[in-house]
Write a structure and sequence with these properties.
alpha/beta; seven-stranded mixed beta sheet; ATP binding; nucleotide-binding; GMP Synthetase, Chain A, domain 3; AMP-dep_synth/lig_dom; Acac_CoA_synth; about 650 residues; five-stranded parallel beta sheet; ATP-binding; 35 strands
C-alpha cells in the first residue's frame, strides 16, 4: 500500500460525514466504502435523494422524497427527478464570496508561463449575467445551440455558464481542431452563435486561427452572430461582436428554471470511425453527478483549488468547470502540458496553490521516464490530491508519484468516459491506494465485469458493464430521432445493460484493473489480454518513446500481432532491442502475447484526447478502406496516419 486512511481522516472526509448522516437518517449501517456502495446501487432512490438533500441541489424547494427520484428505471430512457427544476449555472454561482477567487488562470507566453490572474466570484457572476443578457438580446432561446471554438481560458467558462443560465445548449471544440474536424461536429448541431478566438499559443508557438474561423462562419449558415475573442491580435472582424462588448454590462444573472433533463451541453465521441456522435447531457444529471464525484470522491469544497489539465474538446474540461458547483476555486491552464519544461503542470500547481491536480496517465508516466522529481523542484505543500485518467496508470508510476512528487498525497486513478461525463471506477479517501489498481466502482454506479455469456466474473478479464441507470447517461444522441444509434452504441449485446467497451478485472479484494478497450483486446489462442499490460512492459524500455500493438484477425483464420514502436532520439531498432522488447513482454505481460513483428514507425497516432487509435488501425490492416476505417479530422497527427495507410496497403490483408 502506498497510502492508507486513518479513522480520523475517514471521519473528517466529506464521504465519511455523508455516510454517518445517511446511516442515521436511514437507520442502516454504512460501515466502510463497500457497504456504502452496495446501498448506493441497490437503493438508487434512497442514495440519490440523500445526495440531492446533502448538497441542497433543489435549494429553496421542499425536501426530496425517495419516490420522486426515478420516474422510470429503463435503460436507456431513465427519468430522473421528473417533477423538479434546476439550473446548473445557478448552482455553480451560489458560492459567491469575497474570501477567495472563483478562477485562477495561467497561460503560455513567449517566455514561458504567465503569472496567475484571479477572477473574483463577483466578477464571474457579473460576466455570466452580462453574457447571458447579450445572448437574450441576440434572440437566443432555450434549446438553441451556442458553439465555442476556444482554448482553456476563463472566457470559455463564462460563455458556458452564460448559456446554461438561459437554457441554451453549449458545445465546444479546441482551436487546434482544423475546419473539417470542427464542422464534423458543429454542422450537426446548427449553432446560432459562435464564440471564437483568433488563435492560441501552444508549445512556444503562436497559431493563427483567423482563416479557420472565417471558414467556419462561411460553412455554418445557422450562425447569426460571431462573438470574437482576441488572443493574438487586437483587432476583431468588423462584422463580429467583440468579447469585451458581450460582457461589458456586468449584471446579476437571471436563471431559467429548467426541467431536470433539460439539455446542458453536447459533447462528442472521438469520431475515429465516422462522424462524431453528439452526446447530449442534462442540467440536473450533470449537477448531481458532479457534486457526488467532486464532493464525495475527490473531496473538494470551498477553500480548495482544483485543476484538471484539459482542452475544451475533452470531457475533463467540462468536469473541471463543474468543480465550481462545490465552491472550489477553478485553476485554468492554457498552453502545452509540458511547456516551457516537462514539469509545467507542477509549476502551475506551485504558482496557483493547487490542492487537487488532475492530469493524464501519459503525462505522469512521461515525467517518471524523464527522471523528474517535482517534489524537490517545486513547493507542493498545498497539494493533497492527484487524479489521473485517459488511460491506465502503470504501477511504476504510482510508486514514482509517492517517491518523487509527495509521499502523503492521495493519488486516484480514474476510469470513465465522455459518454457519461463522469467516472465508472474511481477513488475514495476511505480506501487505501495500491499501485496499479483503481480503488472501487464509484457510488451509484452498478459496475460489474461480465464474461461473454453475461455472467459476472471476479479475478479475470470481463466486459465493463453497468446494470442500473446513472443520472449522466446520455439523454440522447443528437439527430438520432429513433434512438437506434444510442442503443447500438451501448446496449448491445445485452439490452437494458450498458456495455462500455473496456476490459475490467475486479480483484478478489474488490479493487479494479482496467486493461484497455475490449474491442482492441489481444486474443491469442483464446487467451485475452488488454493492451495496457503490454504497453507497460514495452514503455519501461528507455529506447521506446511510444508504441501501439494490434491484434489483427485475418480472413484465413490466422492472427497477426504486430508491435509498432516510435524510438526515442538516438536509438535504432537493433536485434538486441527487439530481443529486449520480446523478453520484457514475455516477463511482464504474457508469454502468449509476444508480438509477431516489431516495426519502427515515425509516430503513434492518437485521438485528440490522447487515446491510441488501436481499433481504426486494426481495421486498416484488415483491409478496410482508410476513409471508412478512420476520420483524419479526429486524429492528433494525420500525417503519421499516412504511414500506416501505406503500410496496410502493402501488407495489411495477409
Amino acid at each position: 500500500m502506498l497510502w492508507s486512511p486513518t479513522p480520523e481522516s475517514i471521519a473528517a472526509s466529506q464521504l465519511g460525514r455523508f455516510a454517518a448522516w445517511a446511516a442515521d437518517r436511514r437507520g442502516i449501517p454504512l460501515r466502510g466504502y463497500d457497504e456504502i456502495w452496495a446501498w448506493s446501487t441497490s437503493h438508487l432512490d434512497q442514495f440519490w435523494a440523500d445526495v440531492a438533500t446533502w448538497f441542497d441541489v433543489f435549494e429553496g424547494e421542499e425536501p426530496v422524497t425517495d419516490d420522486e427520484v426515478l420516474g422510470s428505471r429503463a435503460m436507456p430512457g431513465a427519468e430522473w427527478f421528473p417533477r423538479r427544476t434546476v439550473n446548473l449555472a445557478q448552482l455553480a454561482l451560489r458560492h459567491a464570496t469575497d474570501d477567495r477567487p472563483a478562477i485562477v488562470s495561467v497561460h503560455e507566453t513567449a517566455e514561458g508561463l504567465s503569472d496567475p490572474a484571479s477572477m473574483s466570484w463577483a466578477d464571474l457572476r457579473g460576466q455570466v449575467g452580462a453574457f447571458a443578457a447579450t445572448l437574450r438580446r441576440l434572440g437566443v432561446q432555450r434549446g438553441d445551440r451556442v458553439a465555442g471554438y476556444l482554448p482553456n481560458v476563463p472566457e470559455a467558462v463564462v460563455a458556458f455558464l452564460g448559456c446554461a443560465s438561459i437554457g441554451a445548449v453549449w458545445s465546444a471544440c479546441a482551436p487546434d481542431f482544423g475546419p473539417r474536424a470542427v464542422l464534423d461536429r458543429f454542422a450537426q448541431i446548427e449553432p446560432v452563435v459562435l464564440v471564437a478566438c483568433d488563435g492560441y499559443r501552444f508549445g512556444g508557438r503562436e497559431h493563427d486561427r483567423r482563416d479557420v474561423v472565417a471558414d467556419l462562419r462561411a460553412a455554418l449558415p445557422t450562425v447569426r452572430t460571431t462573438i470574437a475573442l482576441p488572443r493574438l491580435h487586437a483587432e476583431v472582424p468588423a462584422d463580429a461582436l467583440p468579447w469585451a462588448e458581450a460582457v461589458a454590462d456586468l449584471q446579476p444573472p437571471v436563471f431559467e428554471a429548467l426541467p431536470f433533463d433539460h439539455p446542458l451541453w453536447i459533447v462528442y465521441s472521438s469520431g475515429t470511425t465516422g462522424l462524431p456522435k453528439g452526446i447530449v447531457h442534462g442540467h440536473g444529471g450533470v449537477a448531481i453527478e458532479q457534486l457526488k464525484q467532486a464532493g464525495l470522491h475527490i473531496d473538494i469544497g470551498p477553500g480548495d483549488r482544483f485543476s484538471w489539465y484539459a482542452s475544451t474538446a475533452w470531457i475533463m474540461w467540462n468536469i473541471a468547470a463543474c468543480s465550481l458547483l462545490t465552491g472550489a476555486t477553478l485553476v485554468v491552464h492554457d498552453g502545452a502540458p509540458g511547456f516551457p519544461s516537462l514539469d509545467a503542470q507542477f509549476a502551475v500547481a506551485e504558482r496557483c496553490g493547487t490542492t487537487y491536480l488532475g492530469t493524464s496517465a501519459g503525462y505522469l508516466t512521461a515525467c517518471e521516464k524523464a527522471g523528474l522529481r517535482p517534489g524537490d523542484a517545486h513547493d507542493l505543500s498545498a497539494l493533497r490530491g492527484i487524479g489521473s485518467t485517459g488511460s491506465p496508470l502503470p504501477a511504476s508510476t504510482f510508486e514514482w508519484v509517492y517517491a518523487a512528487v509527495k509521499p502523503d498525497v492521495f493519488l486516484g486513478s480514474l476510469s470513465g468516459g465522455t459518454d457519461v461525463a463522469t467516472g465508472f471506477i474511481g477513488s475514495s479517501l476511505l480506501l487505501p491506494v495500491v499501485a496499479g489498481e483503481l480503488q472501487r466502482p464509484m457510488l451509484g454506479v452498478a459496475a460489474a465485469s461480465w464474461d461473454e455469456d453475461g455472467h459476472p466474473v471476479v479475478g479475470e478479464l470481463g466486459e465493463l458493464v453497468v446494470t442500473e441507470p446513472m443520472p449522466t447517461m446520455p439523454l440522447r444522441f443528437w439527430a438520432d430521432a429513433d434512438g437506434s444509434r444510442y442503443r447500438e452504441a451501448y446496449f448491445e449485446p445485452w439490452p437494458g445493460v450498458w456495455r462500455h467497451g473496456d476490459w475490467l478485472e475486479i480483484t478478489p479484494t474488490g479493487s479494479c484493473i482496467i486493461t484497455g478497450r475490449s474491442d482492441s483486446t489481444l486474443n491469442r489462442g483464446g487467451v485475452r489480454m488488454g493492451t495496457a499490460d503490454l504497453y507497460a512492459a514495452v514503455e519501461s524500455i528507455p529506447a521506446i518513446a511510444d508504441c501501439v500493438v494490434l491484434g489483427v484477425e485475418q480472413r484465413d483464420g490466422g492472427y497477426w500481432m504486430p508491435l509498432f514502436v516510435q524510438l526515442a532520439p538516438g536509438f535504432e531498432l537493433t536485434d538486441a532491442l527487439v530481443t529486449e522488447i520480446r523478453e520484457a513482454v514475455k516477463r511482464e505481460a504474457s508469454p502468449r502475447h509476444v508480438p509477431d513483428e516489431v516495426l519502427v514507425v515515425p509516430g503513434v497516432p492518437h485521438t485528440r484526447t490522447g487515446k491510441r487509435l488501436e481499433v481504426p488501425l486494426k481495421r486498416l490492416f484488415q483491409g478496410v478502406p482508410p476513409e471508412k476505417a478512420l476520420n483524419l479530422g479526429a486524429v492528433d497527427d494525420a500525417e503519421v496516419v499516412q504511414h500506416y495507410v501505406a503500410l496496410a496497403a502493402d501488407r495489411g490483408v495477409r
